[in-house]
Amino acid sequence: MQTIAGRSIPDKLRERFLGAKSVLVVTGAGVSAESGVPTFRGGGRTAVWKGMPFDVISSASMVEHNLAAVWEWFDYRRNLLRELKPNPGHKEIARWQERFSQFTLVTQNIDGLHQKAGSHDVIELHGSIWRARCMSCQGRYHIPENATCPAACMECGDRLRPDVVLFGELLPAGAFERAAEAASQSELCFVVGTSGIVYPAASLPEMAKAAGAYICEVNPERTPLSDLCDVVLTGKAGEVLPRISLETRKGYG
Ligand code: APR
Fold first, then answer.
1. Residue 5: what pLDDT?
2. Residue 4: predicted pLDDT
3. Could you tell me the maximum CA-CA distance found in the chain, to the nearest angstrom?
4. Distance 144 CA to ligand 1 centre (A)
5. 2-23 burial by CB neighbour count: b if 16+ within 10 A, else e?
């Protein structure tokens, strides 16, 4: 494993980047940090809401016992997000989608900033804060940026909940299977801005590695996935990702 502290992109990574056809990018909260979205962990702290650790307020049992509190937490986060814009990290990943013939973007983020940056067909492993779902018929509703979510399901009248995967819940049907398929076919895998402790998302780089992919982690801090990686670029996604493109440009350096 090679660690580069913000100097340049290793030749091996440049080679793989220039030669790869199938590329997988797995992102976490860190890719949105430079846009102003608080991460959950990292920097030795975890997020707290009204005295409750985020994994308590963001849990299946809280939906059962106090749906209103869950909505208050997600309304608060949605209000934060309204003002925020994608950063150069999101934008570079969107550009890569046009560059590689087989490109898959898997995110644990629910903020929708990848899509705002122009990425499409994003596999949202943990759902989206911009959607609500009926607790009975599973009907889904888009929550526009400048509006609140419908009071109840327009099909069956039951209550709506955030269409986000909460602690203790399964991932959306098919999402992980699509991501795992892409991991098993990838030649190059980027792990960007995730603490690598939440499964099954953290198993994707492991699957890619088992399939022979070259793994590159981008994170200002080491994570439990770092030892798995062929190269760890220690830095911020918004600075490191554009530099990868720059330093792989023909005639650079
Ligand atoms: N660029 C890249 N990485 C960054 C940056 C940055 N600018 N800033 C912070 N990071 C890194 C941190 O060092 C940390 O390793 O991003 C990581 C964020 O970790 P978490 O907050 O744990 O976020 P994530 O890995 O996405 O969490 C996984 O847990 O809470 C649940 O459902 C939630 O999707 C989330 C899941």
1. 46
2. 44
3. 62
4. 26
5. eeeeeeebbeebbebbeebebb
